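User: Some background: our group keeps a shared notebook of sequences we're curious about, and every so often someone picks one and asks for a predicted structure to add to the entry. Today it's my turn. The entry only has the sequence so far, pasted here. Could you supply the structure so I can complete it?
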Amino acid sequence: MKDTIMKKVLFLIAVLTATTLFSSVEASAAMKLYKVGDIAIENPWARATADRAKNGAAYLTIKNNGSTMDRLMAIQSPIAKIASAHQSLMQDGMMKMKPIKSLNVLAGGTVLFKPGSYHIMFMGLKEPLKKGASFPLNLVFEHAGKITVMVPVLKIGSMGNMHKMKPKL
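Assistant: Of course. Here's the predicted structure to add to the notebook entry:
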């Protein structure tokens, strides 16, 4: 009887430990910080996609710690035919997306890429984005140059915990 109870307790501890560890891994995956020049990229992440999805999206925060404006000029990734910045906006009572050719990042400013706002759109995915995977993403700035970030893929429907995590610059 004691062995059965002990086994159940150990099993429960193992499950709780694994759950806590997985949550920590997902949270820490979304808490990365990359810097080039005065530009910092925080918390890149993407949502997993359905098996037959041809499009996906990624999110992140861009901070300009400098005293002059910089401009996001291009986005590249090997995971899709096209990677580009888009903006979601409400127009005539409908949510619409429009591509952004370049995006100003003001001196001392922050641009947040999040669901329902700015985001990085991947069109023509070469394969579905799978939870637990990661992929490289190149962001090309007018002054700071190119910065490569690794984007972890979180679960479908994830909100990435971006609003909760603020790494130190």
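Suggested note for the entry: The CA atoms of residues 89 and 96 lie 5 Å apart. The chain has one domain: 31-154.
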